[in-house]
Design goal:
CATH topology of the largest domain: TIM Barrel
Helix content: 25-40%
Shape: globular
Bound molecules: iron/sulfur cluster
Number of helices: 15
Structural class: alpha/beta
Radius of gyration: 21 Å
Number of strands: 17
CATH superfamily of the largest domain: Aldolase class I
Largest sheet: 9 strands, mixed
Distance between the termini: 28 Å
CATH class of the largest domain: Alpha Beta
Strand order of the largest sheet: 9-10-8-7-6-5-4-1-11
């Protein structure tokens, strides 16, 4: 079975006011030490390079590394990128320059995920985002110019002071760009962020749901088909890497704060960057209590997809017929019009999709 490789680059040049991801401010010496630790973890992890079909460089801001460091990172990953179908890097537009476009192309990057988050200048200032809509647009055209046209853009919604009309404007401007994929995420405010400390709040549930439903309609009308709760793609441009997660396939996680899944076990790398530099092999393993727990996790990931659960794949993996095993639960949810069976697939109905968390409690 093919596998995915995720590499976490935890550095950012500036910190967004809502961000709770694993990140630290860029520092050249720390990045150099992190690269050495990363090389050590890659070497000690028995990655079957021939099986890797997707690589994802996430962050943080992977392109905030200087060009030499970025090249070293891409060189470290070269042995694993020989057979990949999809090689993604997350970037922020303000950290790109001419040499980096060429570099990414040279090392086989063929997909880019750009953080836009909002299009209005005042909103970007509120979020402490540095690239304007025009900067992102210019960046997209520069990628296309070097031959990388599989481009995704991230947007946030349910932001403080944001109206549904504001978010619809974000969607309109985003779909006017020459891109293949859009991800939309509702803002959650964590206590340990600047927003959390300042007491900022997202929109109420009703406004948030309205924003989400209107966004789906607009994106679909513009040719971006929804294939996952938060993800929309032009025909043939679904994220192959993220599909590995949603199909609950195995994947390697390299770098501080990265998670992985191998041989029926999940693992988390140490999150603290200094601790990772000292010992990049330190990991916490999380074993499933039993097969039931593993199957629940599988259902949880699969139901995020519009396609839902493939009963044949489920049977192959667990030797369990999902329709038999959960028939009581499935009947109840079908009666409530939250789940439906279509051929060999069990999937959420349109009404069930926004209530996924409720649906999952039935399977617990
Ligand atoms: S660039 Fe991304 S990872 Fe860095 S602070 Fe902003 S949201 Fe967080």
């Amino acid at each position: 079975m093919s596998q995915a490789l995720y590499v976490h680059v935890p550095f950012c040049r500036s910190i967004c006011f809502y961000c709770d991801f694993c990140h630290v401010g860029y520092n050249k010496q720390v990045v150099d030490a992190w690269l050495s630790a990363l090389a050590k973890q890659l070497k000690q992890t028995n990655i079957e390079a021939a099986k890797i079909d997707t690589i994802y460089l996430g962050g943080g801001t992977p392109n905030c590394l200087d060009a030499d460091q970025l090249e070293l990172l891409l060189q470290l990953l070269r042995p694993y990128s020989q057979h990949v179908k999809e090689y993604t890097i997350e970037i922020n537009a303000e950290a790109m320059d001419e040499s980096k476009y060429q570099l990414l192309k040279k090392y086989g990057i063929n997909r880019v995920s750009i953080g836009l988050e909002a299009t209005d200048g005042n909103m970007l200032k509120l979020l402490n985002r540095k690239a304007s809509f025009e900067d992102v647009k210019e960046c997209i055209y520069s990628f296309i110019a070097v031959g990388i046209d599989n481009i995704s853009v991230d947007l946030l919604y349910s932001l403080p002071f944001q109206t549904t009309a504001d978010f619809m404007r974000d969607i309109d401007l985003t779909v006017s760009l020459p891109i293949k994929h859009v991800s939309i995420y509702a803002l959650t405010i964590e206590e340990n962020t600047f927003f959390g400390r300042q007491g900022f709040k997202p929109q109420d549930d009703e406004t948030e749901a309205d924003m989400y439903l209107q966004a789906i309609a607009k994106l679909e009308a513009a040719g971006f088909k929804q294939y996952e709760i938060s993800n929309f793609a032009k025909e043939g441009y679904q994220s192959l890497h993220n599909l590995h997660y949603w199909h609950f396939d195995d994947f390697y996680g390299i770098g501080p704060g990265a998670s992985g899944k191998l041989d029926h076990r999940l693992y988390d790398n140490v999150k603290d960057v200094k601790a990772y530099i000292q010992d990049p092999l330190k990991q916490d393993f999380i074993c499933f209590k039993d097969k039931e727990e593993e199957m629940f996790e599988h259902i949880m990931m699969n139901l995020r997809l519009i396609d839902g659960i493939d009963a044949t794949a489920f049977k192959e993996r667990y030797d369990v017929d999902i329709f038999d095993h959960y028939h009581d639960v499935i009947d109840q949810l079908k009666e409530k019009n939250l789940l439906k069976q279509e051929g060999n697939y069990l999937r959420c109905t349109k009404e069930g999709f926004p209530l996924l968390n409720t649906i999952l409690t039935y399977f617990l």
